Amino acid sequence: MSEKFSFEKLGQDGKARTGVIHTTRGDIRTPAFMPVGTAATVKAMMPESVAATGADILLGNTYHLMLRPTAERIDALGGLHKFMNWDKPILTDSGGFQVMSLAGLRKLTEKGVTFKSHIDGSRHELTPERSMEIQRLLGSDIVMCFDECPALPADRDTIAKSMRMSMRWAQRSRDAFGDRPGHALFGIQQGGLEQDFRQESAEALREIGFDGYAVGGLAVGEGQGAMFGCLDFAPDMLPEDKPRYLMGVGKPDDIVGAVARGIDMMDCVLPSRSGRTGQAFTRHGVVNIKNARHQDDPRPLDEQCSCPACSNYSRAYLHHVYRSQEMISGMLLTWHNLHYFQELMQGMRDAIAAGTFEAFQKDFHETRANGDIERL
């Protein structure tokens, strides 16, 4: 275990927790949302702009960075933090999810995965040991175990076989990670939607011992109801005194529901991807700025939001630059979305600390249900 990485729980309301993850590169307030910087950049954003939204940590993608520009090149240039000009913590995924999604381009064995690059067709091998090496070269603060993530739905035999191999890979990841003070290694619970497999996975991970634990294998097409059903029991199987990370989630209502079930960390490409496609998340729900009803509207996206898009520009302008395919459209909408997500996290942290999380959830859902405010 890392001597310079720790989780301090500051409050709890029901299953919802708030606290701080202490790292050598700074504190991460929880519940935490991690913007995704797939290729060493959060698309359409400067690093200092991402920090200005309130983000304490970013996620980098092992699969994409190992292919281009390569982990070895990033290491030679001083590591990922220096390379992308981000001095706060970085979590890197293991590369497993992206490789597993390359149906027809990869071969899976007990050793690991061989696959063809989606960029140029070159062949590569990713194993637990190689994943740990790549993440070491990148210099990430939080390293994820290499695992397999089967698509859902799947039969019980398939889920069991995959989960047990992931647990063997978790032990190999732990062994290969070694002793790295200041850097943390997270294990990943698997088992699909099956409670007994989730329990078996959690026990295997606890036996190995990790700095934090992720709930993996969700948000892969099973639907929100099934995901919440799994989260009703899966986080409770993980150590109380370690961070719990739900991978690849999600929409604002997914995030609130996950926090209510004991999750501390989340990541998703949705804020930036939606910003580039004309969608803005507000406390009143999703606004599609491409719609013609915004073309003469002088109001901001959200009158209670203090981001640059809402403070300085009208819906009419945002509609115009989106329809004109101007780059500033994706920049402003992404900034707004990331600001909104971080504001949502701060609201939950405050509510949990005050013991008013149930009221927060009620207001969150009622405000969204009322829909986007119409022009007076």
Strand order of the largest sheet: 4-5-6-10-11-12-13-14
Counting structural domains, the number is 2
Secondary-structure-derived class: alpha/beta
Question: What is the CATH topology descriptor of the largest domain?
Answer: TIM Barrel
| End-to-end C-alpha gap | 57 Å
Q: Tell me, rounded to a whole number, the average pLDDT.
A: 95
Helix content: 40-55%
Q: From the coordinates shown, what is the CATH architecture of the largest domain? A: Alpha-Beta Barrel
Question: What would CATH call the homologous superfamily of the largest domain?
Answer: Queuine tRNA-ribosyltransferase-like
CATH class designation of the largest domain:
Alpha Beta
The share of residues in extended strands comes to: 15-25%
H/I helix tally: 15
Low-confidence stretches: none
From the spread of the alpha carbons, the general shape counts as globular
Rg over CA atoms: 21 Å
The overall strand count is: 16
**What can be said about the biggest beta sheet?**
8 strands, parallel, barrel
